[in-house]
Each structure stands twice: as C-alpha cells, then as structure tokens.
Amino acid sequence: MKNILGVFNGKFQDLDKIKVSPLSRAYTFSDSVYEVIPFYNNKIIAFEKHINRLSNSCDALNIKSNISLCSDEILHLISTSKLKNGYVYYQISRGVDALRSHIYDTSLEVETFGYIVDYQFESKDLKVSLCEDIRWQRCDIKSTSLLGNVMSMNQSKNNHCDEVIMHKDGELTEGGASNVFFVIEGNIYTPSLSSNILPGITRELLISESNKNGIYIEEGKYSVNDLLQAESIWLTSSTKCLGQVIEIIGYETKIELNNEVFQKCNKIFKNAFLSGQLNNNII
Ligand SMILES: Cc1ncc(COP(=O)(O)O)c(C=O)c1O
User: Which pTM value belongs to this model?
Assistant: First the structure.
C-alpha cells in the first residue's frame, strides 16, 4: 500500500497511514456509498455524472455529505498524482457511532475516504456464468453493501469465469460489477433501469453515443432465454469499458466472436473515450 495516495476525512496521505475506527458504520453495517471515477489521458470521464450519482446515493440513504468538497478532493487526488490513466475510488460513510446500533444518530459526522489507482483501460474478452440474483432490492443505490455480488462473482471465479450475469427468476438484471447488452438479429438490447440495476454510467454513455451515431439500443425486460439467443453479448463498466462475452459456461450459445454490431459499438465508445468527448472536466 506504500505510496498510494489517499484522502481520509479531508487529510491527504499515503493509504498505509490512514487509520479507521472500528465503530465506523462503513465497517459495522456497510453504511456507505461509493464511486469509481475513471480518468484517461489526464481527463476525467463523465465527472459530473459520477458526482451526481454519488449525491443520489447519499440522498437515498439520507447521508448528509458535502458533495462539492468530495468532488474537490477527487480532483485534487488526480491533479497531484503523476498518473495519466487510472481511477479514483471514493467512499462516503455515515460516520462513527458511539455504539453499534442499527438506528443511526442523525448528528453523526460523515466519514470520507478516497484513493487513486494506476490503471490501463483495455477491453478484455470475458467468460461468464449465469446465476440467480441474490442481492437486495435497492441495487440502484451504489452502496458498499455488495456481499451478493461478492459471493456470486467468487463462485463464478471458482468456475474459471471473469464475470457473472444475474437474473431474478429468469429476468436479466446485470453483471456482478457491470451492465449487460446483447444483440439478436442485429438489434441491441439492454435491461431497462429499475431498483434491481445500477444505473451504470458507461451504459448511459454507450446508449447516448450510439444514438448519436444512428444506432438505437432498446431498453426493456429480457429473459435468460433471450440472452441465450444472442449473437453477441457484452458487459460495460467504468473500468471494463465494453468487454465482449466469449462464453457462458454450461450453455450452448450463438455467440459470434467480434460480431459486427459489437465492433461498431465498441469503436463508437472507444473513439469517444480516447478523443476526450466523454470528458466534462479537464484537470
Ligand atoms: C453492479 C454494477 N452494475 C453496473 C456497473 C457499471 O457501472 P459504471 O458503468 O458506472 O461503472 C457496476 C460498476 O462497478 C456495478 O458494480
């Protein structure tokens, strides 16, 4: 952890110097929200969208944060680092309780924590498994309560997979740490937003950039059976960008590697990403 720059409650220091109270509600209840904010070529990707989602997550849990201070800290982490490409992990917790109690004291001081990571963005091919979505019913909040995702993704890893695609009683929701898109007969589909899905920023950017280029992506309710008919499937996230699914273990699929529609969408997204069009903040 040496030399990884972090910030804890406004103080910038190396990660290994940061000390956290065992009574932090982030520690006892996962009573916290977070963001992963990518930057490429010294430019932050969709900064405003990440900050808005962080603010929405705080509002949903009634965590009273100073979002403009948090966004200044994120900018400071990036501008003081020598990194060109990477991401900032930033977390806001309700704070430290005098005693562990489910009922929180509304006067707690929020606790903030962030750090910066050197990261090279590249699309990887992904082998995935399918599983029942065992998570809670507010997956639209980007909270650190991620045990359902952790369990499913590790089970998937034990089956030599890179990711998992989840469904609730056969209806597709999302990936373990990503949103899902698929193509049938040239048409692109993605599950519509609901309380069971994180409103992914890469998902949103891909839909709007594709639209600008005359490619329409349909949002709706889709089943595992629909997915298994797909000629192309990909997952999106701030760190994965677009990752093409090459195999769903245990299932026969119709997946064509480097499918033409996938390649078009990937090119549109990459061009926007690399050219700086997705950046609304220049450091
Ligand atoms: C459960 C889940 N869905 C979707 C996403 C993709 O979101 P974004 O594109 O904003 O990174 C993530 C990212 O970590 C995630 O954890």
Answer: 0.96
